[in-house]
Amino acid sequence: MANLTSMSGFLLMGFSDNHELQILHALLFLVTYLLALTGNLLIITVTSLDHRLQSPMYYFLKHLSLLDLCFISVTVPQSIANSLMNNGYISHGQCILQVFFFIALASSEVAILTVMSYDRYAAICRPLQYETIMNSYACRQAVTAVWLAGGLSGLMHTAVNFSIPLCGERVIHQFFCDVPQMLKLACSHEFINEIAVAAFTTSAAFICLVSIVLSYIRIFSTVLRIPSAEGRTKVFTTCLPHLFVVTFFLSTAGFEFLHPPSDSQSAMDLMFSIFYTVIPPTLNPVIYSLRNEAMKAALRKVLSKGICPEKDIFKSHF
């Protein structure tokens, strides 16, 4: 293990001090990471190539999969390497990069989920204006705003978090450089700026959550007036997986970021951190493709190498 008194980086405590359990953790994380990698790459591939999946809904889904792929790659490979080497040390520079990309991608994910909920609202509640509202220019602008907002959030958190003086041993009771856990290393009353930035980003996330809830209230009120049972089923099949993803991601991340960090390693902290860092990127490809007939048909075409690219990105809509 690293010398705590002389190291300039941090020590990630991870899941266990037992090397056999660390190997088991590394194997489980490796399997999960490969599943997430495969699933998200497949979605990115089929939504890029299949002409039937060129609507705004699938355009945003492609970017969600790209975000998921990057998001899980920020924390899991480093954790696997640390477990296999039985050494939780992470350098100061690596920790800075991990915090920046983690916050940036998490913020972008919240933003893209908000955009996706508005897209479904426009498609279901305002179908006659849908092509005008969600035209190709508007979709590109929305995605650009998503990535820029995430980058700005990551930059603010990173700049403020690593300007705080640290006192005591640089031990982080997590498997990655987690901001709430890092705050307890700060010298007394020196993290007020980070609290201010966290309050700002939490407020932004709350606005996104309210927007998502309002969109789905309108969606479900409209769906319940649809006379066709088949039509209601089709809409629910599309919307309910998205609502599940939003609820699961925001509730678990909110619990971890809003509750006060403990002075020692907590099994609940580790469990909830897995819930919002590992589980959503792994399950999203399954959730969005398992009950979507168009996605399943496109996946079968990709696997059988029978797909032909099309140039018109917004040729059709859901």
Automatic annotation (TrEMBL):
Keywords: Cell membrane, G-protein coupled receptor, Membrane, Olfaction, Receptor, Sensory transduction, Transducer, Transmembrane, Transmembrane helix. It is a multi-pass membrane protein. It is found in: Cell membrane. SUPFAM superfamilies: Family A G protein-coupled receptor-like (SSF81321). InterPro entries: GPCR_Rhodpsn, GPCR_Rhodpsn_7TM, Olfact_rcpt, Olfactory_GPCR. Residues 39-288 form the G-protein coupled receptors family 1 profile domain. The keyword Heme does not apply. The chain crosses the membrane at residues 23-46, 58-76, 96-116, 137-156, 195-217, 238-258, 270-290. It comes from the Eukaryota. Its main location: membrane. One of its GO terms (molecular function) is olfactory receptor activity. CDD domains: 7tmA_OR14-like. Gene3D superfamilies: Rhodopsin 7-helix transmembrane proteins. GO terms for cellular component: plasma membrane. PANTHER family: OLFACTORY RECEPTOR. Odorant receptor. Putative odorant or sperm cell receptor. Belongs to the G-protein coupled receptor 1 family. This is Olfactory receptor. It comes from Neovison vison. The gene is LOC122889189.
